[in-house]
Design a protein that fits this description.
Length: 466
């Protein structure tokens, strides 16, 4: 290991000069200053809290140590140290886990926030370190006229996203993010490096089942695709909804999205009595596209078309907030069609509109995602066409209780309608049989692989595969 140019005290003083509130900016500052590849923080260190906090301000966990690691050797050192002290390990890359699964009380947090290198292996293959944020990835690959099908939020980490699946604007054409994952390197509970080129089980498990379960992923190789030349968005707004109007619109939306081209994506976002519907399409030819949802356009209060924008500009407009916020979001079922929720539409509407701050969203999946066999990757849900997500946001901790109570009622309602398949990257701590919901028929194989890679359950979080 290289010698540090700064003493730890000098180093922490320098860090303390940065704004504590600017969570992600601080990674960059640290990156410039850190010459050593490993820094261990405890509760007594002034920057402990800065690195402990995750994107979701609702969840507070206090690890005994935070190991900030810049290299594989540093990760190995952190794992061996945790073993020596008999501590469980949580792993963090982008820190966006809905339920704070990338942190652990009284254990070792391995913080990979500095591992952000991007290396091109050839014109189509790129090697990413785990904490590359999606905005880092796009900043690097769009100028090369390439894309990876990822999600839309700029500050989500590529590894957390890909290890649990990963969907977004390009998924119906190119599959989930994990479907473009070709190779990974993982450091296991003993500090051994495993290369998926020598161990095919590992790649299978990391395509949808790899979040925090088996070891620390330190390298990911992705296939890239030719970037589209433009990106078009169509936004419809509907205000002052009533229950019957909501039912009419959601039925029309499901109908309009049944036969979308693979280049298109759509989201139905009910926020109180206000509905936004988004369609996007990156096909060069947009002729006839609006016809698919012309009935919705006719009913909209407001309709905005943003055709043929530059891809970089369009993607940036969906990057979202960067600073940590209070929220409770979760998967709210994966549907084949409206029939999975039809009987509960009135009740869904009443509950979502009963308290301010709840959002019920349904996104299109399908296309290429469903062309892959459900046993071919750990991600199992290859037979559904829609992913729904329940969201709630608030500013002050005292607002949490009312929102989360209604949130859980809606989750129960959706379960009672028979919706039990859930998306692992949108976890809910309250899902009964969570791992069955996330991994379906692939759970058994994942459990066998947990025994193979991490028999002592060194890597742990509340919904770890056991
Ligand atoms: C604002 C926001 C927008 C989002 N948008 C989308 C979207 O458009 N599409 C989509 O599919 N998802 C989306 N998500 C969900 C996102 O995919 C997950 O939250 C994802 O797991 C976050 O990854 P991360 O690295 O940022 O988070 P982290 O909290 O660092 O990690 C998440 C999980 O992965 C594990 N993990 C992280 N790094 C590693 C590693 N190197 N090795 C092993 N395990 C690791 C952690 O232990 C944890 O269990 C969004 C989330 C948020 C908060």
């Amino acid at each position: 290991m290289m010698q540090n140019k700064y003493t730890k005290r000098e180093f922490l003083k320098l860090l303390g000069a940065g704004s504590l509130g600017i969570f992600f900016m601080s990674f960059y500052k640290l990156d410039n200053l850190l010459e050593d590849d490993f820094l261990l923080l405890t509760k007594n260190d002034s920057t402990y809290n800065q690195y402990r906090k995750s994107f979701n301000k609702r969840i507070e966990k206090y690890p005994k140590y935070i190991a900030i690691c810049k290299t594989d050797k540093a990760v190995q050192k952190a794992i061996l140290m945790a073993n020596d002290k008999n501590l469980k390990i949580a792993i963090r890359s982008g820190g966006h886990s809905f339920e704070g699964f990338s942190n652990i009380d009284n254990g070792m947090l391995i913080h990979l926030g500095l591992m952000k290198n991007i290396t091109w292996l050839n014109n189509e293959l790129v090697k990413l370190q785990p904490a590359c944020l999606l905005q880092d990835v796009y900043d690097n690959i769009l100028p090369k006229k390439r894309i990876i099908p990822t999600g839309s939020c700029g500050t989500v980490g590529i590894s957390g996203l890909a290890l649990g699946g990963g969907y977004g604007f390009f998924s119906r054409k190119y599959g989930l993010t994990c479907d473009s994952l070709l190779r990974v390197k993982m450091i296991d509970y003993k500090g051994n490096v495993i290369d998926s080129d020598q161990d095919k089980d590992l790649l299978w498990a990391c395509k949808g089942g790899g979040n925090g379960n088996f070891g620390v992923i330190t390298e990911m190789h992705f296939k890239t695709y030719k970037a589209p030349t433009s990106f078009s968005s169509y936004r419809l707004k509907f205000s002052n909804l009533t229950e019957s109007k909501f039912i009419q619109l959601i039925k029309l939306w499901f109908q309009s999205t049944e036969k979308l081209p693979q280049e298109a994506f759509s989201a139905f976002v009910l926020n109180g009595k206000f509905l936004t519907i988004l369609f996007t399409n990156f096909n060069e030819s947009q002729s006839d596209f609006e016809k698919q949802f012309s009935q919705l356009i006719a009913l909209a209060t407001n309709y905005k078309k943003m055709p043929n924008r530059s891809l970089a500009t369009a993607l940036k407009s969906y990057y979202g907030v960067k600073e940590p916020i209070y929220f409770k979001n979760a998967s709210a079922g994966l549907y084949q069609s409206i029939s999975d929720i039809e009987k509960g539409l009135s009740e869904i509407y009443r509950k979502v509109t009963s308290v301010k701050g709840i959002i019920y969203q349904v996104n299109t999946l399908g296309g290429k995602i469903n062309e892959i066999k459900s046993s071919a990757t750990a991600y199992p849900h290859r037979d559904v066409n829609y992913l729904s997500e329940l969201q709630s946001y608030w500013d002050k901790p005292e607002q949490e209780k009312a929102l989360v109570t209604t949130f859980e009622e809606i989750q129960r309602l959706l379960r009672d309608l028979g919706n039990t398949k859930q998306y692992r990257n949108y976890p809910d701590i309250n899902f009964p049989n969570a791992n069955n919901s996330y991994y379906g028929n692939n759970l058994k194989r994942l459990q066998e692989l947990k025994l193979k890679y991490d028999p002592k359950n060194t890597f742990d979080y509340p919904q770890v595969i056991k």
